[in-house]
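Incident log, structure service

09:12 report received: a user says their structure output differs between two submissions of the same chain.
09:20 pulled the input from the user's history:
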Amino acid sequence: MPQVNPGAAEVPHRQIADQLRERIRRGDWAPGERLPAIPAIAEMYGVAKQTVQRTVDQLRVEGLLITKPGSGTFVRGTRRRLNRLARGRYGGQRGYHADLAARYRQQLTEVGRAPAPPEVADAFGVADGTELVVRRHVVRTDDSPVEVGASWFRVADAAGTSLDRAEPFGRPLYQEAEEVTGRRYTWARDVLTARQPSRDEAQTLRIRPDTPVLHLLHVAYDAERRPIEVAQATWPGPVTTLTEEYRVPAPAPDPDPDPGLVLG
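09:34 re-ran on a clean worker, output below:
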């Protein structure tokens, strides 16, 4: 029987959040399933509706719940695993990452010219607001948006090419860019930050404005370290897990002592 301990150090809405969180994790409510209405949960725990509303607000910020106006509150789903930041876009053989392609669907939402935001301008080494070609997209899984992103190119590189047209490609974007520009992706730099979402990001990702997001800036360079593409990706922080796997180098052998050094 659900209950709240009035003598506990944790305030009631956090006690209820702990219990609901545990029920979600053990599968009492599956991803996409609607939770009981707030009055029903309040009656279940013997607390005021305002207390349960605070609980729901907390779990929404954590990314476990999503509220659909007029429909109710639903379990958002499982955590999204980020595999090695942007490296997955190149796959094992410089192609599609099969596992990601099977789970996530990318939708192209806009292609056109736009002023470069500061972080993109800095990466290209141009002034803020410089006009660039941008390709914006949304990534979904199980009908839930999990990523908003954009890829930016210099107008001189992309104007009049397939990169400048609102059409998807039958291959990864970087392969299209390599053919169009005649330059091969050789180096890349990823910068990951945490911040609050913009209004548009919150609306697209269906998160509260106070839910933190993870933001990735991916800069791809040619062999001469000239940027070809600057890509941005933003994910809901509470439902995104960053996972890196890498080999740990073996200890280096001790260098031979200086033969000219006399010990003792």
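09:41 both user submissions now match this output. Likely a transient worker issue. Closing.
09:42 reviewer note: The first strand starts at residue 65 and ends at 68. The beta strands are 65-68, 72-75, 80-83, 105-115, 131-141, 144-154, 187-195, 213-221, 227-236, 240-243.
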